[in-house]
Design brief:
Number of helices: 16
Distance between the termini: 61 Å
Helix content: 25-40%
Shape: globular
Strand content: 15-25%
Strand order of the largest sheet: 15-16-14-13-19-20-21
Radius of gyration: 21 Å
Number of strands: 21
């Protein structure tokens, strides 16, 4: 009998394969980073073939390290960086271009053109999304318009589009061209009410239907894997943030999680009803399990969180490792009135300001390395408060507790400051790898490894809790200064 479930977690900076047992505990894991390619300022690309090679490598390494065989896995799930856009040849499997990453801003001029014709929210009613360089549709249009021969090949069905989940599934199964509702909901080409590609949206963005994958639920059997996972059913697909929502067992309306990674992504489950946002959030599909109705979420997406710490390390040389950021930040009592607004590629939720750029505000001769490091960490907490405030206004639900996951939850200083800024407890689960766990849950539910969502709720346990300890006047003063700093970052680029 198969004892475990596996998950491919393909993220912005690395790929992991993790094997879980029935309690959601990690049995085996392997991780490998891939290159970040920056052809021009604001452009971010990945090599799809490198990602696929790394995926195969981490699968093999994880299985070998735990003395496991494919037959030990009941199924595998896939979770992925969302919106990142790929185009490849149906016959050869060769990419027609590097993947254009979700952070990439090369289509900013297209965003402005489309917004000029009908406003930034012209597609929001159908898709839940504003016009932004973030989503896949304009990235795909760019590839079809600029890669020689791409449009003709796409119209003939000889070129295939996919987000990273589709690329991995196509390679895993030898040619299954599918995606799930969560990833499809991030393309700006699928209607939230029908969960189908919309002809009007395809026409607006100039996307031929023949290039698109078939949309499926997040939890069903899509096919069998080959090679390192020969014979194992691929049975779950979720975009990374939706996967984390499931891994955190936020399965009831009003439950919310925040993932602190390269970016920062806060999702609140709103149940079987999509909630329109009037305060700068996204309406997205949370998950769909088999034939059950889809569940939806409100999402606040922050482009730069952990990436700001990486910038301190790689661009400024302020720290030698990301872990040093907490030590350096803790060397000072407070931020010294220094604020960093990390609008490296504009500001996402709730501002949606493509013309914003990063600023460091409040500098005096008193400011030192520790204040800069502390301001960098605090920026993530301030951006999260921006999103929570918008989410509470949209949903009418006051956040009672924030479930936190991602690499930055290991930073105690940040997590305490987050609780202080929100005025509510922040909790970290026993299993921190909630993104991979959510994908494993989706796959395991599809094959009966877990009997239902009650099993997932029973697995969730608190590992650490941070309670707010900051007086309200201090919290209000700090946040007011943050908002002033944000004002300095807006409209930098015309």
């Amino acid at each position: 009998m198969s004892r475990f479930v596996g998950a491919i977690d393909q993220g912005t900076t690395s790929t992991r394969f993790i094997v879980f047992d029935r309690q959601g505990s990690i049995v085996a894991s392997s991780q490998r980073e891939h290159r970040q390619i920056y052809p021009k300022p604001g452009w971010v690309e990945h090599d799809p073939l490198e990602i696929w090679r790394n995926t195969r490598a981490v699968i093999a390494n994880a299985l070998a390290g735990a003395w496991l065989e494919p037959r030990d896995l009941a199924a595998i799930g896939v979770t992925n960086q969302r919106e990142t856009t790929l185009l490849w040849d149906r016959r050869t499997g060769e990419p027609l271009h590097n993947a254009i990453v979700w952070q990439d801003t090369r289509v900013d001029s297209l965003v402005a053109e489309y917004a000029a014709e009908g406003g930034k929210d012209r597609f929001r009613a159908a898709t839940g999304l504003p016009l932004a360089s973030y989503f896949s549709a304009l990235k795909l249009k760019f590839l079809l318009d600029t890669v020689p021969g791409a449009r003709a090949r796409a119209e003939a069905g000889d070129a295939l589009f996919g987000t990273v989940d589709t690329w991995l599934l196509w390679n895993l199964t030898g040619g299954r061209h599918l995606t799930d509702v969560t990833n499809a909901s991030r393309t700006q080409l699928m209607r939230l009410d029908t969960l189908a590609w919309d002809p009007a949206l395809l026409a607006a963005f100039g996307v031929p239907a023949a290039v698109l994958p078939e949309i499926r639920s997040s939890s069903e059997i899509y096919g069998e894997a080959r090679d390192e996972l020969a014979g194992v059913k691929v049975a779950g697909i979720l975009g990374d943030q939706q996967a984390a929502l499931m891994g955190q067992a936020c399965l009831r309306p009003g439950e919310a999680k925040n993932t602190y990674g390269t970016g920062c992504f806060l999702l609140m489950n709103t149940g079987e009803r999509p909630v329109a946002s009037n305060h700068g959030l996204l309406t997205t599909v949370a998950y769909r399990l088999g034939e059950a109705p889809a569940c939806y979420a409100l999402e606040g997406s922050v482009a730069i969180a952990g990436a700001l710490v990486q910038w301190l390390r790689d661009n400024l040389g302020l720290i030698a490792s990301s872990a040093e950021s907490e030590t350096l930040a803790a060397s000072v009592e407070d931020n010294g009135d220094v604020y960093i607004v990390p609008a490296f590629s504009g500001l996402y939720a709730p501002y949606w300001q493509a013309g914003a750029r990063g600023v460091i505000a409040g500098l005096t001769r008193f400011a030192g390395r520790g204040h800069i490091a502390r301001a960098a960490l605090e920026a993530t907490a301030y951006q999260t408060r921006d999103v929570v405030a918008a989410m509470e206004r949209d949903s009418g639900i006051a956040l009672a507790t924030l479930r936190a996951d991602g690499g930055m939850v290991a930073n105690d200083l940040l997590m305490q400051f987050q609780a202080d800024m929100l005025g509510v407890p922040v909790v970290r689960p026993q299993v921190a790898e909630t993104t991979a766990l959510g994908a494993a849950y989706a796959a395991g539910l599809a094959v009966g490894y877990w009997q239902g969502t009650d099993d997932l709720v029973a697995n969730w346990q608190v590992a650490r809790r941070w309670d707010p300890a900051m007086p309200e006047p201090r919290r209000a003063a700090l946040y007011a200064s943050w908002q002033k700093a944000v004002g300095k970052a807006l409209d930098w680029v015309e």
